[in-house]
Amino acid sequence: MTSENKRTVIPIGPYHPLQEEPEHFLLYVEGEKVVDIDWMAGYNHRGIEKLAERMTYDQITFLVERVCGICSTSHPIAFTNAVEDLCGIDIPERAKYIRSIVGELERLHSHLLWAGLAGHYLGYDTVWMWAWKYREPVLDVMEAVTGNRNNYAMMKAGGVRRDIDNDDIPTILKMVDELTPKVDLLLKAVQDDPVIHARTKGVGILSPADARAYGAVGPTARASGVDIDIRRDHPYAAYNLVEWKVITAQNGDVYDKVAVRLLEMFESISIIKQCLKRLKVTGGPLDAEIKEVPPGPGLGHGEAPRGEVFHYIVSDGTNSPVRLKIRAPSFCNVPTFKATCIGETVSDAALILAAVDPCYCCTERMSVIEAETGKRTLTGADLIRLSREKTTRLRRG
Amino acid sequence: MVMKEKFSDRIIEWFEKSEKRFYILIDSSNLLQIVDYIFNEVRARYIIVSGLDTPAGIELVYHFALDGAGTVVSLRVILPHENPRIESIASIITGAQWIEREIRELLGVEFLHHPDPRRFLMSEDWPEGVYPLRREK
Amino acid sequence: MGLKIKALKKSLWVFHLSCGSCNNCDIEILDCLTPRFDVERFGIKLVGSIRHADVLLVTGIVTRKVLPRLKRLYEQAPKPIVVIAVGACPCSGGIFAQSYNMAGPLDKIIPVDAYIPGCPPKPEAIIAGVVKLWEKLK
Predict the structure, then answer these.
(1) Among A212, A325, A366, whose Cβ lies nearest the Cβ of B50?
(2) Which of A44, A239, A300, A314 is the most exposed, fewest CB within 10 Å of its CB?
(3) Which chain B residues are Cβ-neighbours of C61 within 8 angstroms?
(4) CA triplet B68, A65, B66: central angle to 5 degrees?
(5) Closest among A179, A168, A161, A150 to A74, alpha carbons compared
(6) DSSP state of A102
(7) Are residues A116 and A246 part of one domain?
(8) What is the rounded CA–CA span in Å between residue C29 and residue C127?
(9) Cβ of residue B125 closer than 8 Å to a chain C Cβ
(10) Which of C17, C15, C23 is closest to C119 using CA atoms?
(11) What is the pLDDT at residue C133?
(12) Do residue C24 and residue A129 have CB atoms under 8 angstroms apart?
């Protein structure tokens, strides 16, 4: 900090404190307070939309699965929804249950991943290890059912590629039943810990008006009381065939963002169990064979763990789209920190950024740009350290 | 739909692909007014803007969700290839400014009165004037 | 190389860098630290700075924007440093090989000592690859 210039610029990045992905944020601070923040993208930009133009509809499901490692199946679900919208077809019932089961299993492991990272940045490393440990059985089930821990290759336009064997159902049920008390423990830990309350309540508040202005989606929006969820509002797969509820909160702070994700996990478990029960008694084909794709537009979305994934296709009637537009949830959620970080302290910045559960690769087909600063700088590691130190101080005090 | 009547003289083409999918072609000069109506009066949710290079011009599609009705309304405008420019909608929907920056880099559209028209995605060494999503002639 | 490799016998300090990835490999790498795989018991540790690293684990295709950063980081790395390409992307570009933003694969930019293919490779595969290389260097 110098006297001529009251503002200090702190770059966070290129390796974000909470993630392993490259992204750049520039925090402009005056003293300890954040006064502005800039988001730079581009490090993960892999030109996926352009790549899609030379692939067939069938091949694209493999491409879009790799937009983001953790919202892996949400992209193929939105994409196949778009193709099915274009063709005006509905998928067979058994495929609907399978899509929902895989989608909800993904939500479970994604939220657990996030819970672990948030725990780490708060200084609760046991939470990190523990959340990631309980994530493993979910991945084991994914591997048993789809063949891979990540990147499941389950979705195709018209249905699903592989079946879930009815014989596997007890294994999946056992896993979610064993997971339930773990999630409960995690929820209670958050609800009962005064230090977590102190770190997260009233911090990083996103107002409903700002949520709308940025197009925020998913838990980031629902924590602010914005009652939207693609699974209920624009139903796809089996979400309108089973009973479940959309979880919202009222304050829009980091605490609410945590709570919404944890409570959602119980709904996911319930959806999985109901779908498995129906799967046992639902036979039929796994996909509606699509012979031809008409020219015109097609639009599909799905509720990824981070919020709405949106795919828009333009077809010219050939085997390959003319255009594929992918909008990942984080593209609209990440900029909300312009509204939530400003006025907050540097030691809270890392946590507020994490609270939108940013998936930079989704948004990147994106990345962040860096800026130069000659002023005092902090690295990503410094920001984590600041956050953890704050927790320690609160515990002592 | 109320909108159809209200803006009937400003709608070039109204296409209902299905009861949940509306594609409305308008002139770029009417964009702000109609976006304002959809976002602030109808209270639709802003999803994203997509751009596409077509033989007729650079087409921008503004996607909005009517979550209560499970519907998506997509506003289309077509801009001339030689000079694709249009008003930024960031004054109405602040979140749109990032996708407008992306579209500028990938398709070369100029967004007038954009609050922050800097480079966003592409590396510093990516040549100006090369737009990856433009088609070869 | 002698002094450095002697150091390697005791423990392996690993710096992890994503050069434009979907993040799956990055998460599987982090997974190696968690209780089920727990690589710390083998003496493998993730460090926060390249200057302390014996091994550089790289994921991602190497996008144009990351390229200068990757080069700079490699320059800062103490030599010798062992470079491992984790996942299909740094090995060959994977499914993104034709992308307009691709500046890789990794061995076009910096020397690579080992390739661990997969999309993503499982933690077992990553650990096996690192250990195999470690054995070889001994």
Answers:
(1) A325
(2) A314
(3) none
(4) 10
(5) A150
(6) H
(7) yes
(8) 9
(9) yes
(10) C23
(11) 85
(12) no
Query: Which of C19, C61, C63, C65 to probe the B interface (max B CBs under 10 A)?
Result: C65
DSSP A204-250: S---HHHHHHHT--HHHHHTTT----HHHHS--TTTTTS-------S
Q: Please check whether residues A195 and A208 belong to one and the same domain.
A: yes
Same domain membership, residue A165 and residue A57: yes
Please give the Cα distance from A223 to A254 (Å, whole number): 8
Cβ of residue B126 closer than 8 Å to a chain C Cβ = yes
Q: What is the pLDDT of residues B13-60, one digit of tens each?
A: 999 999 999 999 999 999 999 999 999 999 999 999 999 999 999 999
Residue B32 falls inside a structural domain: yes
CATH of the domain at C114: 3.40.50.12280
End-to-end CA distance of chain C: 11
Smallest CA-to-CA distance from A229 within A269, A203, A183, A260 is with: A260
Q: Is residue A1 part of a domain?
A: no
Domains: count for chain B: 1
Q: Which of C67, C23, B123, C69 is nearest to A369 (CA)?
A: B123
Domain that holds residue B80: 2-112
With CB atoms and an 8 Å threshold, state whether C64 touches B132: no
Test B121 with A297 for CB contact under 8 angstroms.
no
> pLDDT tens digits for C41-83?
778 888 877 888 888 999 999 989 889 888 988 998 988 899 9
User: ∠ CA(A342), CA(A346), CA(A349), 5° rounding?
Assistant: 65
Q: Which residues in chain A have Cβ-Cβ distances shorter than 8 Å to B95?
A: 213-216, 332, 335
Q: Which two tokens stand for residue C84?
A: 């491992």
Range of the domain at C21: 2-137
Q: Which two three-digit tokens encode residue B5?
A: 């009547």
Provide the residue range defining the domain that includes A372.
8-45+342-396
Residue A272 is which amino acid? I
Would you list which residues of chain C are within 8 Å, Cβ to Cβ, of chain A?
A: 16-31, 34-36, 48-49, 60-61, 63, 65-66, 69, 94-96, 98-102, 119-120, 122
B45 contacts A212? CB cut-off 8 A:
yes
The verdict on residue A194 lying in a domain is: yes
Q: Measured between beta carbons, which residues in chain A are less than 8 angstroms from residue C51?
A: none
A307/A353 same-domain check: no
A155-156 vs A159-160, strand pairing mode:
antiparallel
